[in-house]
Amino acid sequence: MSGRIVQVNERNVQVLENGGGEPLLYLHGFADIHSVKESWLPFHEKLAERGRLIAPAHPGCARSDENKDIDTVEDVVFHYLEVLDALRLTRFDLVGTCVGGWIAAEIAVRHPEKIRRLVLIGAAGLFVQGALIGDVFMNAQPEYGSSYASLREMLFSRADHPMALEFFPDGKGELEDELRRYQMLRLSSRVGFKPPYFYNYSLKNRLHRITSPTLVIWGEKDNFVPRAHGETYTEKIPGAKLTTIPGSGHSAHVEKPEEAARLVREFLDK
User: Fold this and answer.
1) Distance CA 81, CA 90 (A)
2) What pTM did the predictor assign?
3) Superfamily of domain 2-132+183-268
4) Strand pairing of 52-56 and 11-18?
5) Per-residue pLDDT tens over the stretch 134-169
6) Where are the beta strands (DSSP E) in 103-160?
7) What are phi and psi of 114, to 5 degrees?
């Protein structure tokens, strides 16, 4: 693993890279690198075996500077267009999880010519009637002063899953992990707290613009972004395929890293 700071419009952006070959841009979610953990997870290490994995930290997350211009997801997209320019990425594979999946979809509808293949894992971003996205901000408040069981239940298949307890322990965890969790929630509040909550109403009717082969992956027990959102992405993106990972929740790439990485690698290698 190698990391560096990239200058983007007079702001620092932390970028981790691993592997070699064709570029694969990875945009993180809540239970992930940059948002909790400092180093690669097993899922990312598997992806780096087949290409050059590039993972920037979102604005204000990890060691990336805050971008005070960000108020909507549109602002995040413009930030990432500048990141792509700084990294000299003109065409690449794109994988996004959770909020990162939302950002990935927003980039793909605006600049479909840049994306070779697209993978969305538990992606937020859509308004689906009768299938509301869960309130992660409410559940991020500790119950009884110290318990994060409801947050773990939302982001994983069950509250007592070992990885859920490692990422979101009761009480105080590792200080740097706690800071990264706070930073990710803070950024997400800027683009997803105000109505519409984690939605861009316009996105659904723009998905037809995506021209890259697309794989949509969903955890069987996703209690944060309902499966109906994955079905809607699949219906609206031409030729998209939906795959479910049994026994996993919203953070399928953390709970089932081998299976999630296999699905992504097989798709990208087609």
Assistant:
1) 10
2) 0.96
3) Alpha/Beta hydrolase fold, catalytic domain (3.40.50.1820)
4) antiparallel
5) 999 999 988 876 899 999 999 999 999 999 999 999
6) 115-121
7) -85, -20
For the chain, the structural domain boundaries read 2-132+183-268
Residue 14 main-chain phi, psi, to 5 deg: -80, 130
In the predicted model, what is the mean pLDDT of residues 188-211? 90
Residue 103: is its pLDDT beyond 90?
A: yes
pLDDT at residue 142, rounded to an integer: 86
| Range 100-113 average pLDDT | 98
Is pLDDT of 212 > 90?
yes
**Whole-angstrom distance, CA of residue 40 vs CA of residue 266:** 20
- Per DSSP, the residues of the chain read -EEEEEEETTEEEEEEEE--SSEEEEE--SSSBTTTBSS--HHHHHHTTSSEEEEEPPTTSTTSPP-TT-SSHHHHHHHHHHHHHHHT-SSEEEEEETHHHHHHHHHHHH-GGGEEEEEEES--B---TT-PPP-HHHHTSPBTTTB-HHHHHHHSSSTT-HHHHHHS-SS---HHHHHHHHHHHHHHHHHHTSSSTTB-TTTGGGGGG--S-EEEEEETT-SSS-HHHHHHHHHHSTT-EEEEETT--TTHHHHSHHHHHHHHHHHHT-
Place of tokens 């690698």: 265
Chain segment 45-84, per-residue pLDDT in tens? 999 999 999 999 999 999 999 999 999 999 999 999 999 9
